[in-house]
Amino acid sequence: MESKATVALDRSVQLKAFDETKTGVKGLVEAGISEIPAIFRAPPATIKTPTPPSSSQFTIPTIDLQGGSTDSTSRRSLVEKIGDAAERWGFFQVINHGIPLDVLERMKEGVREFHELDPEVRKGFYSRDPSNKLVYSSNFDLYSSPAANWRDTLGCYTAPDPPRPEDLPAACGEVMIEYSKEVMKVGKMLFELLSEALGLNTNHLKDMDCTNSLLLLGHYYPPCPQPDLTLGLTKHSDNSFLTVLLQDNVGGLQVLHDQYWVDVPPVPGALVINVGDLLQLITNGKFISVEHRVLANGAGPRISVACFFSSYLMANPRVYGPIKELLSEENPPIYRDTTITEYSKFYRSKGFDGTSGLLYLKI
Fold first, then answer.
1. For residue 129, what pLDDT is reported?
2. Sheet holding 260-263, edge to edge
């Protein structure tokens, strides 16, 4: 029987070999594999899917944003719905958000086109250096997570300093910049509504710099020959204030709600919004950053574009803690203060290990 040290060494050799191909999971599929490598095999317990009872209690809220900025009655109703979704689910979908359908379609198509470029072309973009303007890689936590995920990612910061179009891949660079400008508008509107839902001034969250930074990640989940043995994305919560996700029609995204994995079904033209750890931190646990995952699938590829409102990979000395106006004797702070830089360093070092990073900040 192999010793633990031998198994660990063997795994590290396999991880390095996979990383050095610089073509990601898509490269494995292109090579025609019929079995997934051992480094992708997830512990069976993490793949289990207890199906929730079918009832409206287990349906992700869908919120119509139309009319929320003009009519005060509609605005109040909208604030209430968004506050309720952020408190009870931490996840909701929005429709009539203002981003043109053709921009959504071109964004998804651009991500697909990049990940389906010739392997030799993709290799030129591959990097594990988070300080690069643009990063194409597979699994940011490849060397620290218990099992690798079946997906590849292309990403860059589009705010506060958008990259130059010539620094981005021709396949999707132009639309990445166009789409992120649209997401910034939606994000600002959502932060206003969330501020009001907390009983604060409309601009409170924006004034805390929640909308200053935007990280765009274009994910590609190739078809998997053994989808029941791995995950597209392991259970985790997001290191952001808010995440705006555009997903295609393949499905597979699930949210942990009342101990059940609940599907987040693709809704044509909708965006999926979820509360991140930093928003849970500053609202002192009122809005919840919930765990979610993506199942691997045999049909694929699944395309999604996640935009994170967070200065996750950039130096940021600003200190964040529970908002003072929300605290009282009955509601004392439950988290200690931190900087995004400190929290991000911890988050990246632990990887997607199935635990919430906020436990690290609990008082």
1. 87
2. 231-236, 292-295, 253-257, 260-263
